[in-house]
């Protein structure tokens, strides 16, 4: 359990396996960042697959870690961990193909929205429940998956959206039955891996260079409001309300 790395020369898989719901602690986010940075260190690697085991791709941040601390150290650590993981996906020198199944929430949207390509199972749903959890963030990444006005509506209402709807927007490349997801994402990654590794690496670098939004700066700006909400005491109440509902 944890963050697993598997490679076969041209393709490296990074797999999130943190039961029960793939909600990541600060240490988990940093471990994921390290794994993604390690995944493409070999010059022969041409694509990285980011996948997960269990019921869903990623439920975001482990709120219990934040709620059990009386200082801001955990909040600072988890925000820095999320920032590091998203940046690792974005800065990965080769394309990252996300294989999304089940729920993709909060930090999961941060990962999927930063990936170069998303392949999803037909049971996948995407959403930012941050407002209900007393936090803000990853709208930067959601805006890479949905149109701007829809992104705003999803942030305000915490509504989710299906993989097929994202396929209609073009932000999800393929939607396949759950049992076919692993094969589909391997096929897409294999198409990339068949290319010249150096050319693919320069292609990734060039595409990052023409992005209209600086993802790091934009996401860091959002995180500042999470700090503010925590200092105001609003976040503690929202997180506790969510945790209490889960226990009933």
From TrEMBL:
Gene Ontology terms for molecular function: lyase activity
InterPro entries according to UniProt: ClpP/crotonase-like_dom_sf, Enoyl-CoA_hydra/iso
Coiled-coil intervals, chain numbering: none
Keywords: Lipid metabolism, Lyase
Domain of life of the native organism: Bacteria
Protein's UniProt keywords contain Cell membrane: no
UniProt xrefs under Pfam families: ECH_1
Gene Ontology terms: biological process: fatty acid beta-oxidation
Family, as annotated: Belongs to the enoyl-CoA hydratase/isomerase family.
Protein's UniProt name: Enoyl-CoA hydratase
Organism of provenance: Salinispora arenicola
């Amino acid at each position: 359990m944890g963050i697993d790395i598997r490679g076969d020369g041209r393709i490296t898989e990074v797999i999130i396996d943190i039961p029960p719901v793939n909600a990541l602690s600060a240490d988990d986010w940093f471990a994921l960042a390290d794994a993604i940075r390690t995944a493409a260190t070999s010059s022969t690697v041409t694509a990285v697959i980011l996948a997960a085991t269990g019921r869903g791709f990623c439920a975001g941040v482990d709120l219990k870690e934040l709620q059990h601390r009386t200082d801001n150290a955990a909040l600072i650590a988890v925000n820095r961990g999320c920032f590091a993981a998203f940046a690792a996906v974005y800065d990965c020198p080769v394309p990252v193909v996300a294989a999304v199944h089940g729920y993709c929430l909060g930090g999961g949207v941060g990962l999927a929205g930063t990936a170069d390509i998303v392949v999803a199972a037909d049971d996948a749903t995407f959403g930012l429940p941050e407002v209900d959890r007393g936090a803000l963030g990853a709208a930067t990444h959601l805006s890479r998956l949905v149109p701007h006005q829809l992104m705003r509506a999803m942030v305000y209402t915490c509504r989710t959206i299906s993989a097929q709807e994202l396929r209609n927007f073009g932000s999800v490349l393929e939607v396949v039955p759950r049992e076919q997801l692993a094969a589909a994402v391997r096929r897409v990654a294999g198409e990339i891996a068949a290319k010249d590794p150096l050319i693919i690496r320069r292609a990734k670098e060039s595409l990052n260079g023409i992005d209209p939004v600086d993802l790091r700066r934009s996401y860091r700006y959002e995180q500042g409001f999470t700090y503010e909400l925590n200092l105001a005491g609003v976040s503690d109440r929202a997180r506790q309300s969510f945790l209490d509902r889960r226990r009933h």
